[in-house]
Design a protein that fits this description.
Layout (H helix, E strand, L loop, with lengths): L5 E8 L4 E9 L6 H8 L8 H10 L6 E6 L5 E8 L4 E8 L1
Helix pairs in contact: 1-2
Length: about 100
């Protein structure tokens, strides 16, 4: 299956003159970064503390995009998120 890039447009209504939006793509693929890292380690039966630390780094919840924007007098704004097929995305919006 081919991953087709698309976008999701979020309509926001905020009682603030500025905001910051952050999106994080959540890996739900079986062969995600931690699975691949584990296999590259030789699929050990018992992980060492160093190996656990390396796998945690691979699965860290890092924002993919962080954008600050101004909100008009209407209190409405739009935020566009890049999407791929079967993506799960967490978007957080913080008033500034």
């Amino acid at each position: 299956m081919r991953h087709v890039p698309a976008a999701c447009l979020l309509a926001l209504a905020l009682a603030s003159s500025a905001a910051q939006a952050t999106d994080r793509h959540i890996a739900i693929d079986f062969n995600g970064p931690s699975q691949t890292g584990y296999l590259k380690m030789g699929a050990p039966e018992n992980l060492t503390a160093t190996q656990v630390k390396q796998l945690k780094i691979l699965t860290a919840d890092k924002p993919e995009t962080t954008v600050r924007f101004k909100i008009g007098k209407s209190g409405k704004a739009h935020y566009q998120v890049k999407m791929r097929a079967n993506d799960v995305v967490l978007v957080t919006v913080d008033p500034r």
